[in-house]
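Why do we care about 3D structure at all? Because function follows from shape, and shape follows, mostly, from sequence. That is the central idea of this module. The next example makes it concrete: a single protein chain, its amino acid sequence, and then its structure expressed as tokens.
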Amino acid sequence: MAHLQKDRSLIAVLGDEDSVTGLLLAGIGHIDSKQKSNFLVVDSKTPLAKIEESFEEFTNRKDVAIILITQQVADEIRHILDDYDQAFPTILEIPSKDRPYDPSKDSVLKRVQRLFGEGA
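And the structure:
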């Protein structure tokens, strides 16, 4: 398992402008030599295909350890999140300024609850 995490040093983020900006100010921003960033600002004009494409890109990158995704954006790609079963990168749903965290929607939390027999 250690070899899987050896080169994973980045946190990627998908979310609203305020959430992404705050995380970038905290220092998670990175743009590689191919001009690929580890973040995507999602607003009402962002096409679903772009969100899905960015999520797939982040999950396939070997340098990303964690993907933070605001729950509002996660709801838009819930059909993909529910099928995601890899250990790395780990997906963590976070609240946004406009919407509080709802644990009943969190795919990872649901998986953990099923593992421990606590819920449907």
